[in-house]
Amino acid sequence: MQLKRRDFLKATAGGGLLLAAQGPVAALAHKEKKALAPNAVGILYDSTLCVGCMACMAGCKQANNMPVETTDMLARWDNPPDLSAKTLNVIKRYIDGNGLNKDQETDGYGFIKRHCMHCLDPSCVSACPVSALQKDPDNGVVSYDKNACIGCRYCQIACPFNIPKFEWHSAFPKIFKCELCRHILQKGGISGCCSSCPTGASIFGPVDELLTEAKRRLTLAPGLHDTFPVNAMGAGRNTKYNSQKVGHYVPHIYGENEVGGTQVLLLAGIPFGKLGMPDLPEESFVSLADGIQYAIYKGMAYPLIVLGALVYMISKGESPKE
Ligand code: SF4
Ligand code: SF4
Ligand code: SF4
Questions:
Q1: Strand, helix or coil at 127?
Q2: Which residue lies with its CA nearest to atom 6 of ligand 2?
Q3: To the nearest 10°, the Cα dihedral for 22, 152, 132, 113?
Q4: CA within 20 to 30 Å of 149's CA: 71, 241, 246, 303, which one?
Q5: Distance between alpha carbon 217 and the CA centroid of its chain, in Å?
Q6: E strand intervals along the chain
Q7: How many CB atoms lie within 10 A of CB 239?
Q8: Do 40 and 140 form a contact (C-beta atoms < 8 A)?
Q9: CATH: 3.50.50.60, 3.30.365.10, 3.40.30.110, 3.30.70.20. Which one for 34-282?
Q10: In the chain, which residue ranges form alpha helices assigned H by DSSP?
């Protein structure tokens, strides 16, 4: 996939800060795709199993002690319409034509769950000049430290999924984004959205096992019944299973490769672009930024050396021509 203008801007937005923080020499190293953290955990969201009940949104608010958001109940189905400093997880609806058929692009409807994707190589982490955003080296969760944050909003600009939200109304504003309920994980629990999902559309678990499960689902015969884990899966968990009708999947696990891979994986019956997910390159923006900076650095190095030599000679009273 080619690098688009928007991707370039996001990559350079994230990368500019990276360069400033690390210096040009660090930017010379072109990055490989990042490996999963040893105990990487994440979420598999399967839109074909989602009934749009929004229990995950309520579960998220409860788990994170977030306030209710006042929106116009009559205005639209998506309520609230997007992530905000009060809402870390939203279910958004797709509808087309008569909207009668679940998970069909034409005359159909479907859902998508939006929150932080917990990228393997997160550009928000690279863009933050004070390391207020960090990726946990053990479980890969991308966390936020409000005490370190200076409110510059570089993470907002750098995020390819438009996730971090700024607290505009506060005198000392902070950034808000899903932290995979890390305070619950520390106590051995699972994320609030997954523990409250009744259908198995959102399941928590080790990322490698979630990916295996996602691949398994893509091999199932649509229309037949199969068993699907509910709430969570993985070793040491007493996983419950639901028998459900297999949906028609688009053959794509969103997050497996986008921007270097993410710890949140998505399956759907409607193309992800229609569901509002950005069409992104496989290389992470951090890696792309390194490449852009490397090219700029390479191109700039020779003129800078010549300029430096000229300045030196002039300062010594020598003729530049000599
Ligand atoms: S989705 Fe955005 S906020 Fe979340 S880890 Fe990736 S870059 Fe950071
Ligand atoms: S993992 Fe936690 S913070 Fe993130 S969307 Fe789910 S409930 Fe909300
Ligand atoms: S709780 Fe589960 S089924 Fe209900 S909206 Fe959220 S992901 Fe979909």
A1: helix
A2: 193
A3: -110
A4: 71
A5: 22
A6: 41-46, 90-95, 101-102, 108-114, 133-135, 142-144, 165-166, 175-176, 202-206, 225-230, 240-245, 264-267
A7: 15
A8: yes
A9: 3.30.70.20
A10: 5-22, 24-27, 55-64, 123-127, 154-158, 182-185, 192-195, 207-219, 285-315
pTM equals: 0.84
Amino acid at 149: C
CB 275 within 8 A of CB 254: no
The four Cα atoms 136, 199, 82, 64 give a dihedral, to 10 degrees, of -50
CA-59 nearest atom, ligand 2: 7
pLDDT digits (tens, 9 = 90+) for 132-185: 999 999 999 999 999 999 999 999 999 999 999 999 888 889 999 999 999 999
Q: Which residue of 181, 207, 262 sits with most ligand 2 atoms within 8 Å of its CB, as the best mutation to test the pocket?
A: 181
Q: How far is Cα 317 from Cα 63, in angstroms, rounded to an integer?
A: 70
165-166 vs 142-144, strand pairing mode:
unpaired
Q: Which ligand is nearest to the CA of 182?
A: 2
Cα–Cα distance between 53 and 34 in angstroms, integer?
A: 35
Confidence of residue 306 (pLDDT cuts 50, 70, 90): very low
Q: For residue 258, which amino acid is it? A: E
- C-beta of residue 285 within 8 angstroms of C-beta of residue 7: yes
